[in-house]
Amino acid sequence: MFVLLRQLQRIRSECALPRPARRGSLQLRHVDAGSCNGCEHELQAASGPAYDLARFGLSITASPRHADVLLVTGAVTTRMRGALEIAYAAMPEPRRVAALGDCALGCGLLGDPSQIAGRVEEILPVDLRIPGCPPDPETIARHLRELLAR
Ligand code: SF4
Fold first, then answer.
1. What is the chain's mean pLDDT, rounded?
2. What is the per-residue pLDDT across 42-81, written as a single tens digit (0 to 9) for each?
3. Whose CA is nearest to atom 6 of ligand 1?
4. For residue 135, how far is its CA from the centre of ligand 1 (angstroms)?
């Protein structure tokens, strides 16, 4: 048991990103606007014990009313456009939008164009772009920490 705990501690310290000098926190509301779930998988890994976004003051909230950042994955489908706009409208000011993954950035990897409303930037003002298909957890954590430092 103790051997396992020590190994877990070692793995965490090897994977860990450096702690930010600046204090503060951001609540993230994630919306899947039409992804293949690859970006969600990496986002979940970034929130897990190895990268542990919560350590840096970045946590995912269930309600847009408690969120500072709307984190959008996937190309925005026509069916999700309304939900995305409602979530953004429910957020308190100052609010920010982060587009996670190449689909959200408009690289057009998924879907029939007639079912895609557009890239996130065409629908909401985007403050942070996280490229990759999908971006790896370290890239996600690094970009979100940059947003925290702004
Ligand atoms: S960027 Fe890649 S992993 Fe992310 S939703 Fe698009 S196809 Fe899937």
1. 87
2. 999 998 888 888 888 899 999 999 999 999 999 999 999 9
3. 103
4. 9
Enumerate residues lining ligand 1, CB below 6 A: 35-36, 38-39, 73-74, 101-103, 109-110, 133-134
Is 2-149 CATH 3.40.50.12280? yes
Sorted by where each begins, the domain ranges of the chain are 2-149
Instruction: Write the secondary structure of the chain as one string of H (helix), E (strand) and C (coil).
Output: CHHHHHHHHHHHHHHCCCCCCCCCCEEEEEEECCCCCHHHHHHHHHHCCCCCHHHHCEEECCCHHHCCEEEEECCEEHHHHHHHHHHHHHCCCCCEEEEECCCCCCCCCCCCHHHEEECHHHCCCCCEEECCCCCCHHHHHHHHHHHHHC
Please choose from 32, 37, 39, 107 the residue to mutate so as to test ligand 1's pocket, defined by most ligand atoms within 8 A of CB. 39
pTM over 0.70: yes
